[in-house]
Amino acid sequence: WPFHAPLIHAINTLKRVRNAVILAHNYQTPEIFHGVADIVGDSLALARQAASTDADVIVMAGVHFMAETAKLLNPEKVVLIPSLSAGCSLADSITGADIRLLKQKYPGVPVVTYVNTSAEVKAETDICCTSGNAVQVVESLGVDRVLFLPDEYLAKYVATQTKVEIIAWKGHCEVHERFTGDQLREYRTRFDGITIIAHPECPPDVLEASDFVGSTAQMIDYVGDKRPARVLMVTECSMSDNVATGLPDVEFIRPCNLCPHMKRISLANILESLTTLEPRVEIDPAIADRARLAVERMIAVGR
Ligand code: 13P
Ligand code: SF4
């Protein structure tokens, strides 16, 4: 903190000058999450908040697809992503051309895409979803089957929660795919009475070995409500750091898988970005108009 304090002070001062708001994903480091963020949350909360802010400038302390979603919902505002290399293995796993081919193969089948996709992919989509509302979005369509893209494991998880037939793609999150069911069983043996909660981007054997499955915000709410004596959050490890500060009575057991993309955002590049008002997220208007519809349809479904 002593080293972070001058940067935090400078960012919070400049934020007021710029009438800027900093949205931070739950995976950001504690100095960003607790030090400079105005709004923190999962992808769904960040999309909702981006839709309702009256700031002139939005700084996305998250990854590129999250900044694009904020820009889609705020075409007139300046949306900044402090590092253009903050990508996502899921977003990189599928292109607009892939979706066009799938639509030819499955004519008339609605396309649901995870928000972890590019605007170009969203533009080919009927409706978006996040890990927090995926089942609800799929069921809102009132159909027997959907294309659910690109996360294979989230698709498999959704298929266990609904009667709607789910056609999946082969995208994976490079952070969550590394966890294994064996690893979780080993933690159960080593730590008596441990509660294990997992993100649905994990492989099926991990989810089967867990006590609860939910989005990052749902995982945080679960720990806040249930106050387990010991918990293992099977997800990006900064999240445990962020939550642990407010829950001294809970012991957090942490295998550490970091998202290299989220970690490209730092206090230093947030300050640089607010100073220069760069790098800005811009989306081709022809793509943006169609992609926005898919995100707005998701927001209309509710949580
Ligand atoms: P949430 O929507 O659950 O926050 O997940 C986003 C993400 O990128 C998880 O890896
Ligand atoms: Fe993408 Fe996985 Fe990083 Fe989330 S944790 S941003 S899904 S690579």
From TrEMBL:
- Per the record, GO CC terms? cytosol
Q: Which cofactor does it need?
A: [4Fe-4S] cluster
Q: Which InterPro entries match?
A: NadA, NadA_sf, Quinolinate_synth_type2
- On whether Metal-binding is a keyword of this UniProt record, the answer is yes
Q: Which reaction does it catalyse?
A: iminosuccinate + dihydroxyacetone phosphate = quinolinate + phosphate + 2 H2O + H(+)
Q: Which Gene3D superfamilies match?
A: NadA-like
For the biological process aspect of GO, one term held by this record is: 'de novo' NAD+ biosynthetic process from L-aspartate
Q: Which GO terms describe its molecular function?
A: 4 iron, 4 sulfur cluster binding; metal ion binding; quinolinate synthetase A activity
Q: Does the keyword Cytoplasm apply?
A: yes
Supply the Pfam families for this chain: NadA (PF02445)
Q: Where in the cell is it found?
A: Cytoplasm
Q: Which residues form a coiled coil?
A: none
Task: Provide the binding site for iminosuccinate.
Answer: H25, S43, Y114, V115, N116, S131, H199, P200, E201, T216
Q: Identify the PANTHER family for this entry.
A: QUINOLINATE SYNTHASE, CHLOROPLASTIC, QUINOLINATE SYNTHETASE A
Which family does the record assign? Belongs to the quinolinate synthase family. Type 2 subfamily.
Under which name does UniProt file this protein?
Quinolinate synthase
Species per Swiss-Prot/TrEMBL record: Skermanella aerolata
